[in-house]
User: What shape does this take?
Amino acid sequence: MKVQENKTVRGYIRMCADGWKQGWHERNGGNLTYRMRPEETEACRPYFYVSSQWTDMGVQAENLGGEYFLTTGSGKYFRNVEDDPEHNIGIVEINEAGSAWRSIWTGCRQRPGRAAWNMGGAHGCFTCPAPAMRRSSACRRAAARSPATTGTDLS
Assistant: This one.
């Protein structure tokens, strides 16, 4: 079995595809991120590998410490997730301090620690799962107040 065959990952792929087909996402209108529940993380753990260094998020988000996220790739298109999830989505881990992230599953595995495509940036294969927190102080304050809960059920 591949991680793409996991129920949660399949649901995430479907969510990306549904959003694209219903016009909810632009061609490359941003990133979609899902905070994984502990049992979802455990089901995917056999496929995890550490191939990248910790990357500073530029924000301290203690409430995200130790969390795992499914995320679309930086510079990737929502419409391509369904056809080629391995090269368009990934799973990232947030360090315990909530200050850095690293890729633990992506299609970038063949080139550990490096992007497998030209992204015009040196921030790894996938974007920080909380990029909006860097954009405004209101977003940073909201993130600091939010409880560490997961999103909706993807099944």
Remarks:
- Residues 109-153 have pLDDT under 50 and may be disordered.
- Residues 7-21 form the longest helix (15 residues).
